[in-house]
Amino acid sequence: MNGKNKYMNPYLAGVLLGFVLLTTIYITGRGLGASGAMKSVAVSAVKAAAPEHYNTTTYYRDYASDHPQGPMKSWLVFEMLGVLVGAFFSGVLSGRIGLKLEKGPGVTNTARLLGAIVGGFLFGFGSQLGRGCTSGSALSGMAVMSYGGIITMLAIFGSAYAFAWFFRKMWISR
Predict the structure, then answer these.
(1) Which end is more exposed in the chain, N or C (fewer Cβ atoms within 10 Å of the end residue's Cβ)?
(2) How far is 110 from 115, CA to CA, in rounded Å?
């Protein structure tokens, strides 16, 4: 990294991500993922806010039997905490720490925030239907040559490429 470009070379970042994924599979027997950590947080919130509902619902009983030490003791929760801490330190080291809303010139702040929230909700919902997020299903799946992982990656990038044409004017300076 030089003073003018505060971003890591994307090819180097990709290779490093590959090594992290390989190491994770070697050490834990599982790949990377993020949506499972969010599920653990949601299950913990339901357990705290509505314990009777938590104790009487089959889904939560099954989840509890799969996670006997509790939902927050999942390795995915610790992985995501590491991602947050690492992202913070990366921002500090590169001088990019701070809050800002990135958007195109034709987009209002409200539209950008609403689009991000709705898009995040839809992607989270889809990750539960597809049994994994981009990291878990696509990256980790492709790393072990899973047919589902390859199809997931093609679907994610293919749909992004197809939809980019419709939304490009929001990001292009006039």
Answers:
(1) C
(2) 8
Q: Are the C-beta atoms of residues 111 and 23 closer than 8 Å to each other?
A: no
Q: Per this entry, what is the length of the chain?
A: 174
The H or E element spanning position 39 is helix 35-49
Hunting for tokens 């992607």 — which residue is that?
A: 123
First to last CA, the chain: 31
CA distance linking residue 166 with residue 170, whole number of Å: 9
pLDDT in tens, 120-171: 888 888 887 877 777 778 888 888 888 888 888 898 889 889 888 887 777 7
Which ranges constitute the DSSP H helices of 50-146? 51-56, 58-66, 75-94, 109-129, 140-143
Instruction: Compute φ and ψ for 98, nearest 5 degrees.
Output: 145, 170
Characterise 132 by phi-psi region: left (phi > 0), alpha (psi -120 to 50), beta (else). Answer: left
Residue 41's nearest CA partner among 84, 82, 70 is 70
